[in-house]
Design a protein that fits this description.
Structural class: mainly alpha
Strand content: under 5%
Number of strands: 0
Order of helices and strands: HHHHHHHHHHH
Radius of gyration: 18 Å
Largest sheet: none
Shape: globular
Length: about 190
Amino acid sequence: DKAQGFIARAFVRLHDGEYDEALRDFETALRIDPQRLDAMHGRGKCLSLLGEDEEAMSCFNRLRRILPDDPDIAYELADAMFAAGFLEDALRVCLECLALDPAFTEAYVLMAVVETRKENDGLAFDHLEKALEIEADNPFALNEMAYLLHLQGRDGEAFDYVEQALDSFPDFTEALYNKATILYFQGLLDES
């Protein structure tokens, strides 16, 4: 299957961070076989990673019509909606994702990020606590909890959470940034 060759290469390129090249391969595969759902999903992911949020949302909406019971597709749509600034829509689709899979940790984390952006810290904490109840070592939930605690001036607790995030995922850039920020505000890191 000629489309499969392009899809396989596209997923390797996607994994390697070569988003433009991966997108071209997914689109080539879709020209060969427009019904390939894996290529549609990969195309949407590339578009999202390239900041083409409107196109990504269109792609994931199409996939949702085809696969309405797939929580991964619902989450990808919610993430693209968040990136495009559609916060309420992102929350709504996260809830739809959780209705399909109540243990979908990433949906709780995304809901917490949205609520933090909306300055609803109480709801953000609730979502992060649920995410960590499901997956205690999820580095994204741990890092978001650290960020939220830091915003509240609770840097000691924040530092513990960011350390746990880095234990789970040592090269997690956002957690490294959070750690440096917390250390700076604690006076343990100078501006240089």
